[in-house]
């Protein structure tokens, strides 16, 4: 598999007529405080309490794919006085603002987080900014206080703020193998960040990116998003193993099962339950009285 095995699927980028907006012909939607600039989309400005997102309107039905993200994070904040970062999404739902880097919590799908601010004060083993990934079936919450550590699949340090050269992130999904690589050193070379086998992602989900600021802030800019279809050969055994799935999961990682809430009882159903409960209670009382009277009659006969 190489560059020659890729076909272009969609793109948003410089000078490509990306069509960001709300019209029916647009492939992209902006949300929140996101703004279209001359050469990029600014998800959030370097201001407090902002959030924004960019979502593709077309679901992705590719089996094997690669998403390349050209981004820039910069601002006036000094060390540990900036935040909060951005996320890249492949999820069932789109355009739902929330607390997880500007997107909804308990999402269904894949989230890749470029986290620029350490919330967990006591941790010392990881250096921020930090890139991590999470697969969710809708049952898990992202733990902000611990920087997502309880649910992350893996991660790496990625010094991406205030750089004078371009920064890139690539997400590759091939044969249920998830790979995330970074190009952030100005050398035009990919370096490994996360590699997880056995990742099962359904087809038909949406790509997007989002960001949020709180008391601390940064400019979070997306310069381009490029999705490629990867042509991969599979053996007959792999074809059987790689059948479509309907809920995200990771092999050897137990995710809590989603349980559907029971529908509320209708008025008729509630009436019938109460009615038959009363009938059963009366029937039980009558049977009890009959048996009690027979027992008393037999007791009298034995006495006389």
UniProtKB/TrEMBL annotation:
Membrane topology: Single-pass type I membrane protein; Single-pass membrane protein
RNA-binding in keyword set: no
Occurrences of domain L-type lectin-like (ranges): 1-230
Gene3D superfamilies membership: 2.60.120.200
Pfam families documented for this protein: Lectin_leg-like (PF03388)
GO molecular function: D-mannose binding; metal ion binding
Subcellular location: Endomembrane system; Golgi apparatus membrane
One GO term describing the cellular component: Golgi membrane
Keywords: Disulfide bond, Glycoprotein, Golgi apparatus, Lectin, Membrane, Metal-binding, Signal, Transmembrane, Transmembrane helix
GO BP, one annotated term: endoplasmic reticulum to Golgi vesicle-mediated transport
Transmembrane stretches, start-end: 268-292
RNA-binding recorded as keyword: no
SUPFAM superfamilies: Concanavalin A-like lectins/glucanases
Protein name per UniProt: VIP36-like protein isoform X2
Organism: Delphinapterus leucas (Beluga whale)
Gene expressing this chain: LMAN2L
């Amino acid at each position: 598999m190489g560059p020659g095995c890729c076909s272009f699927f969609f793109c948003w980028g410089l000078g490509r007529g990306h069509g960001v907006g709300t019209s029916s012909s647009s492939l992209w939607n902006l949300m929140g405080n996101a703004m279209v600039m001359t050469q990029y989309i600014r998800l959030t400005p370097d201001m407090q309490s902002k959030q924004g997102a960019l979502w593709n309107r077309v679901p992705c039905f590719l089996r094997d794919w690669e998403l390349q993200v050209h981004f820039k994070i910069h601002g006036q904040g000094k060390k540990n006085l900036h935040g909060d970062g951005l996320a890249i999404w492949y999820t069932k739902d789109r355009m739902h603002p929330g607390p997880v880097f500007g997107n909804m919590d308990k999402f269904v799908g894949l989230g890749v987080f470029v986290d620029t601010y350490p919330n967990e004060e006591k941790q010392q083993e990881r250096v921020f900014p930090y890139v991590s990934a999470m697969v969710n079936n809708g049952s898990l919450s992202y733990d902000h206080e611990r920087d997502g550590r309880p649910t992350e699949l893996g991660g790496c340090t990625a010094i991406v703020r205030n750089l004078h050269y371009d920064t890139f992130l690539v997400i590759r999904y091939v044969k249920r193998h998830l790979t995330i690589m970074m190009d952030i050193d100005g050398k035009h070379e990919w370096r490994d960040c996360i590699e997880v086998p056995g990742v099962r992602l359904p087809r038909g989900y949406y790509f997007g990116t989002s960001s949020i600021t709180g008391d601390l802030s940064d400019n979070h800019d997306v310069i381009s998003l490029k999705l490629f279809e990867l042509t991969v050969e599979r053996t007959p055994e792999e074809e059987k193993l790689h059948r479509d799935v309907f809920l995200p999961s990771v092999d050897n990682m137990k995710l809590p099962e989603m349980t559907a809430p029971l529908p509320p009882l209708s008025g008729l159903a509630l009436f019938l339950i109460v009615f038959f409960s009363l009938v059963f209670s009366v029937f039980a009382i009558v049977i009890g009285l009959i048996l009690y009277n027979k027992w008393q009659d037999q007791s009298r006969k034995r006495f006389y």
